[in-house]
Amino acid sequence: MLPFYFVITAGIYLLDQQDDIYQGRLPELQQDAQISREAAQRNELVEDTTAMTLIRENLRSR
C-alpha cells in the first residue's frame, strides 16, 4: 500500500507543477492568440509551410 501512496503523491505533485507552468505562460499565450486574431483580420496569414519555415528560421537565430 505504501508504494501506491508515493505514486499518487508524485502524480499530484507533477500535475501541480504543470499547472504552475501553464499559469505562468497564460499571459504570453493570450497575447499570441490576440496577435493571430489581428493578423487574420488584416488578411496577413501565411501558408502552413511558410509559417513553419519562418518558425525554424526564428529558432535558429536565437
Short description, anyone?
The protein contains 2 helices and no strands. It is an all-alpha fold and 62 residues long.
Describe this structure in words.
This protein has 62 residues and is an all-alpha fold. 87% of the residues lie in helices and 0% in strands. The chain has two helices and no strands. The protein has helices at 2-41, 48-61. It is elongated and about 60 Å long.
Which percent range fits the helix content?
Answer: over 70%
| Low-pLDDT ranges | none
Radius of gyration equals 19 Å
Shape: elongated
Give the topology string: H per helix, E per strand: HH
Say how many strands there are. 0
Number of domains: 1
- Structural class, please? mainly alpha
Number of H- or I-type helical stretches = 2
**DSSP strand (E) fraction?**
under 5%
What is the oligomeric state here? single chain
* Largest β sheet strand count, sense and barrel closure: none
Query: Whole-number average pLDDT?
Result: 84
